[in-house]
Specification:
Helix content: 10-25%
CATH class of the largest domain: Alpha Beta
Order of helices and strands: EEEHEEEHEHHEHEEEEHHEEEEHEEEEH
CATH architecture of the largest domain: 4-Layer Sandwich
CATH topology of the largest domain: Double-stranded beta-helix
Shape: globular
Structural class: alpha+beta
Radius of gyration: 25 Å
Bound molecules: fe (ii) ion
Number of domains: 2
Strand content: 25-35%
Length: about 375
């Protein structure tokens, strides 16, 4: 069952269960109370602000019952609140070691061309019909940053059916959706028959779109296979090869710009490898077409920054990193645009290739996934 001990004049408690001791601060516990006066019982939102909790809050009494219920009395409020020891264990912060910059959560699985044989794939009608199929596929998209769909309708706007599975379209100056096919007067290189280097889309936006959907409506031209690369894996490879290269791309901002149409001048300033303040790898931006002049790299580091940029590109171009697949009409793929780079191989001018693309956001995708995974409330 365990024990609870009051430490540091009640500023801290130590909870021992199954031989493991976890410390919690009285302030943290009081702020995370789930009683009806602290949290709304209907929507879970906190009803008080930190200013409503006395700064000298401490635990004056503590009792752990055999069923895992912890009763804590907080002074000077003289308020007794029940906590579930299991919830506390699941939300413990004691003993967490800082990981090396570039770390990723356990829920993220990095990949290379070896993923070719187990690309996350599902049929659109099954995803629309079966919540467990949707949960499984969204879970894989969240884990790998990429997934494929088959069996969709071959009709204009069908890509919105994909977004409807988890969220909402993010409209931009390219419209609610954009066409990807050969055009005589391209305003953007994506609309020509050239092969493209693997890239993330729209790094010149702030924030950049976090999800992209590309949906195939026609595909009779030879070539034009789609290809994806795990940018997080590429960043890890760069770090393993040359820590300084990794640090340079994570430290200094690049500049990105798109001004390819009248009235538009999109600009951003972000690093190619983005880390959270605690070092978590949270984003990759890589797009040779929209790189603007880098002006945020100190003169003495510019030569090495360019060497790092070059090497990062070489890693991204390495065929050992890529997963390729062909999209047939009614098929689509989805990428986490903050992580996975995509590209198209060159295709011939005969025949047609018509894809429609749109953007969406991964907070919606993660929300849908988490809601599907959530355990039903106990009925007792
Ligand atoms: Fe693209």
């Amino acid at each position: 069952m365990g024990t609870v001990t009051i430490l540091d004049e009640g500023k801290i408690i130590a909870l021992e269960r199954s031989g493991k001791t976890l410390r919690f601060h009285a302030m943290w516990l009081r702020d995370n109370a789930w009683d009806d006066a602290t949290r709304s019982s209907s929507n879970g939102q906190r009803l008080i602000a930190l200013r409503d909790i006395p700064a000298d809050t401490h635990v004056s009494a503590a009792h752990l019952s055999s069923d895992g219920k912890l009763q804590l009395t907080f002074a000077p409020e003289n308020k007794t609140i029940g906590f579930d020891a299991g919830w506390l264990s699941a939300h413990a912060y004691d003993g967490r070691a800082l990981a090396a910059p570039g770390w990723v959560p356990e829920t993220t699985e990095l990949w290379d061309s070896g993923l070719m044989n187990r690309v996350p794939i599902a049929e659109l009608p099954a995803l629309q019909r079966e919540e467990n199929v949707l949960a499984g596929w969204l879970g894989e998209v969240a884990r790998f940053g990429f997934g494929k769909l088959t069996g969709g309708p071959i009709e204009d706007g069908a890509l919105f059916d994909v977004v409807d599975l988890f969220g909402y379209v993010r409209e931009t100056n390219y419209g609610r959706k954009f066409e990807v096919r050969t055009e005589v007067n391209p305003t953007n290189l994506a609309f020509t028959g050239l092969g493209l280097q693997a890239h993330t889309d729209n790094p010149y936006r702030d924030p950049a779109p976090t999800v992209q959907v590309l949906y195939c409506l026609e595909s009779s031209a030879a070539g034009g296979e789609n290809m994806v690369v795990d940018g997080f894996r590429a960043a890890h490879r760069l770090r393993a090869e040359n820590q300084r290269f990794f640090d340079l791309l994570a430290t200094y901002c690049a500049r990105f710009e798109y001004a390819g149409e009248a009235g538009v001048r999109l600009q951003s300033r972000r690093p190619m490898i983005e880390l959270a303040p605690d070092g978590e790898l949270i984003g990759v931006r890589f797009n040779n077409r929209s790189m603007a002049a880098a002006v945020d790299v100190p003169f003495d580091d510019m030569a090495d920054w360019y060497a790092a940029y070059r090497r990062f590109g070489e890693i991204i171009d390495d065929t050992a990193m890529e997963v390729t697949f062909r999209l047939e009409p009614g098929e689509a793929f989805i990428v986490d645009n903050t992580r996975v780079l995509h590209a198209r191989k060159a295709y011939s001018g005969t025949g047609t290739r018509w894809l429609q693309g749109c953007y969406a956001d991964k907070d919606g995708l993660r929300s849908r996934l988490a809601a599907l995974q959530a355990q039903p409330e106990p009925t007792s």
